[in-house]
Amino acid sequence: MSKLENRPNTALLVVDVQNGAVEGAHERDAVVANIGSLVEKARREGVPVVWVQHSDEELARGSDDWRIVPGLNPDDAEPLVEKNYNDSFEDTILETVLSGLGVGRLVVVGAQTDACIRSTLHGAFARGYDATLVSDAHTTEDQTAWGAPPPDQVIAHTNLYWTYERAPGRTAGTVETKDVDF
User: Is 147 helix (H, G, I), strand (E, B) or coil?
Assistant: First the structure.
C-alpha cells in the first residue's frame, strides 16, 4: 500500500504517447496497441486514465508531433497534464489531479523509456506512490548514436531493475499488459 494517506485508488498514467515521441520508437505499433487495450480496460473498470503530454523545442505545443497518436483518444472527462520536464510531476498539476482522484497507485505506460518513463517512475516512487510499469507498454527510440544501448536493451534493463525496486511502505514492479490488474 502506498505511503499516501487515504489514497486507495489506482490510475493508468499514459505518458507522452505523442506522434513525435513514438514516431521511430521500438515496436511502436505493438506498444501503442497495448496501451490502447489498457485504456479500454481501465475505462470499462472505472479506473481513471490520466494523460501526460510533453512539450519542448522538439515537441512544440500544438504541432502534429505534439499530438497524441491517432487511435489513442483521451476522453474529455479524463485529465490531461501538460509537462515540460521528463518527470511528469515536475512543475505540473499531476499531484493535484491524482490527489483529487484519491490515487495512491499508478500503472505507468508510454514513452520514452530512458527519459520520461524512468523519471516519472522515480518521481512517483519518491513522492510515496506505488508504481507499476507495464513491461510491454513502454518504448523508446534508438539512441545508440549517443552511446546508449539499443532500444530493446534499454527497455529490458528498465523492466529488470523496476521489477526489483523496493522502498519502505511502497511497492513497485512490472507486469505484462495481459496481466494488469487495476
Answer: coil
